[in-house]
Specification:
The complex is a heterodimer of chains A (235) and B (324). With 235 residues, chain A is α/β, with parallel strands linked by helices. Chain A is built from eight helices and 13 strands. Chain B is elongated, with a radius of gyration of 25 Å. Classes of the chains: A alpha/beta (235), B mainly alpha (324).
């Protein structure tokens, strides 16, 4: 019994010594993709995934394209809802799902997810001519109608004012930091929420997941630029 | 109501008790660090979850021990004339129920995940500016979780037999065997690394089965304690020899025709009744008081033993009721 740990260490060392890379895929996804096809489930969600005919563009679609080039793989875009893609991923009928997914997600027990590869801050912006503010207590703040941002404003004791086009607001407005910059607002230090962006993979395909995460890390610095480009030229 | 006299440990045992208390505080400290580290590393591994639960529950015996150590200093009083020795059994009953329930739940969870063929997903984590596979971190956490308990368990084990402390013994054994859990966990995670998705579930099944077994084992033991089973040796189901030795010693008294004892355990202390058949009734009261003094001082574990003079030991098998 006492020898068991030593055997284990020996096995681990041999395995790391020879050519087995750890982790491996139980269903060999990474092996199949290299020189093959990536089946990507896409959900329209500007600016992360934008549909142009049957092709995809947007930040996450571009990231997938770059990864496909690295892996010498073709991409098969499959359009559908988040629900459809998650179920397909769970049964290994897709390899990836993208569409501006953020943490936390109710699907985390059923499919795999990368750790957050990019964070966007939901902040309060003010028109450039307006005086600076430190908090939004009892202040009316414009938010895009029908979005969760209204609840972030309420959490900070602000009064959300749902509008169709928050970019046209005359007073304080709550939106992602990069959007506020894009619309020409002054970004205040008032942080309402952090959105952590993730990409879904088939469950337990750890070699594939690790490869994807390694790739995403190399792109970390260019994502903000890609985001602003996607916003400027929505094709 | 006559309040029981306070129990005082012999000085050398008192020193050992203090040492045991220090070791238990250390155990609590290390277990908290382990539980934290394991929780942070847990991810989606079922085996880690089971090992974490086991570590969390192994906090219970040291806490129960320290609670008892506190209460044992409290002398019996008007409201609790028998003192507070039973608190430990109650603490242990609760812990055993928790352990058994939690273990059963984890076992069910692990097996059902295996049946559903759930593949555990383990990705990368960024640590000190470098990406590393989370599986390595999990294995490191599991190995860390084995080392302090292994050392502390070995230090506590001899103390538990010397002090006749069953809580301390249970704790020491749990700690000492904890490395097996950690090993099973490491094998499970390494298996995931090799692409064997089932390795994690199998390891989790083994670990949770152990937790469950421990729980039901403790439950049986503490229930038996609460219904005053005969005194046993620490860690065995064998009869403790002390009652028979006391009986023999009393039989040696020259004014005693026959003697018998009925003792029960209250934590480390033995208490109960001594039955004596005197040869003559001259000076009986004085002799009985001497016998009481002898029973009290015969061994450090004997406390508050009542001496009862009887004309014969005929009823000692407890069958008088059915025969009458």
């Amino acid at each position: 019994m006492w020898r068991a740990p030593f055997w284990l260490i020996l096995v681990i060392l041999t395995c790391t010594g020879c050519n087995i890379t750890i982790p491996q895929d139980p269903e060999q996804t990474l092996e199949r993709i290299q020189g093959g096809v990536i089946r990507v489930g896409a959900v329209e969600n500007e600016p992360w995934v934008i549909r142009v005919n049957d092709e995809a563009t947007g930040v996450e679609a571009e990231l997938v394209r770059m990864l496909a080039t690295e892996l010498d793989a073709e991409i098969e875009w499959i359009w559908g809802s988040e629900q459809e893609h998650m179920e397909a991923l769970e049964h290994y009928k897709l390899d990836l799902a993208i569409g501006g997914l953020t943490q936390p997600t109710p699907w985390s027990n059923r499919v795999g997810f990368t750790s957050p590869y990019f964070e966007t801050q939901i902040k309060v912006g003010i028109p450039q001519s307006a005086p600076l503010i430190d908090d939004i207590e009892d202040l009316e703040v414009a938010v895009k109608e029908g979005t969760v941002i209204a609840s972030y404003v309420e959490a900070k004791d602000g009064i959300p004012a749902p509008v169709k086009e928050p970019s046209q607001a005359q007073g304080p407005v709550a939106a992602a930091e990069w959007e506020l910059e894009d619309w020409g607002f002054t970004v205040t230090d008032i942080e309402l929420h952090t959105e952590k962006h993730i990409i879904a993979t088939s469950p337990g395909e750890n070699a594939w997941l690790v490869r994807l995460e390694q790739f995403l890390r190399t792109q970390k610095s260019s994502i903000k630029r890609m985001l602003q480009q996607a916003e400027e030229n929505p094709l | 109501m006559k309040v029981r006299p306070a129990y005082q440990l012999p000085e050398d045992k008192q020193k050992k008790l203090e040492r045991a208390k220090r070791l238990e505080w250390l155990t609590i400290f290390f277990m908290i660090t382990i539980v934290t580290v394991m929780y942070l590393a847990m991810g989606s591994s079922q085996a880690m979850k089971a090992a974490w639960a086991e570590d969390l529950l192994s906090l219970v015996p040291p806490i129960a021990f320290l609670i008892t150590a506190h209460f044992r200093q409290k002398p019996p009083n008007e409201k609790f004339p028998y003192g507070y020795h039973r608190t430990v059994s109650i603490a242990f009953l609760c812990a055993a129920i928790a352990l058994a329930t939690f273990g059963s739940f984890l076992f069910y969870d692990s097996i059902s995940k295996l049946i559903k063929m759930e593949h555990p997903t383990i990705g990368m984590i960024e640590l000190f500016g470098r990406q590393i596979w989370m599986g390595w971190i999990m294995m490191a956490a599991l190995i860390y979780s084995a080392i302090p308990p292994l050392i502390l368990g070995r230090m506590k084990l001899p103390l538990s037999t010397e002090l006749h402390e069953k809580t301390l013994y249970t704790d020491a054994v749990m700690n000492k065997d904890d490395w097996l859990t950690a090993l099973a966990g490491v094998v499970g995670i390494f298996g995931i690394g090799l692409g064997w998705w089932w390795a994690d579930g199998v390891a989790a099944g083994i670990i949770s089965f152990e937790v469950m077994k421990d729980g039901f084992g403790h439950l049986k033991e503490v229930i038996e304690d609460l219904i005053d089973k005969y005194p046993t040796k620490v860690g065995h189901d064998d009869k403790d020899m002390l009652p028979e030795q006391l009986q023999y010693r009393l039989q040696q008294l020259n004014w005693v025709a026959d003697a018998d004892v009925r003792l029960r355990e209250e934590g480390d202390v033995l208490t109960g009744e001594v039955y004596l058949v005197p040869k003559t009734e001259t000076n009986l009261l004085q002799k009985l008081e001497e016998a009481s003094e002898l029973a009290q001082t015969y061994h450090w574990r004997l406390h508050d033993v009542a001496v009862v003079p009887v004309s014969s030991l005929g009823q000692r098998n407890g069958n008088h009721r059915s025969s009458s």
